[in-house]
Inverse folding.
């Protein structure tokens, strides 16, 4: 997602959205592969979590 943000900035500066479109297509392919691998159906709600952020998830903390 950081790469997408950087390419959005670059595209705004240069007016060339080629890299942004290509990166968007790669991200779409990545999400499609994960959806297939985990049998997600259209309309299912899912998020990708950075493994570093799992430590901060409320459901992971001891109370």
């Amino acid at each position: 997602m950081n790469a997408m943000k950087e390419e959005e900035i670059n595209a705004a500066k240069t007016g060339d959205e080629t890299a942004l479109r290509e990166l968007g297509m790669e991200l779409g392919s990545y999400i499609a592969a994960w959806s297939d691998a985990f049998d997600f159906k259209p309309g299912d709600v899912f998020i990708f979590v950075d493994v570093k952020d799992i430590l901060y998830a409320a459901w992971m903390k001891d109370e």
Observations:
- The chain has a mean pLDDT of 81.
- The radius of gyration is 16 Å.
- Residues 18-37 form the longest helix (20 residues).
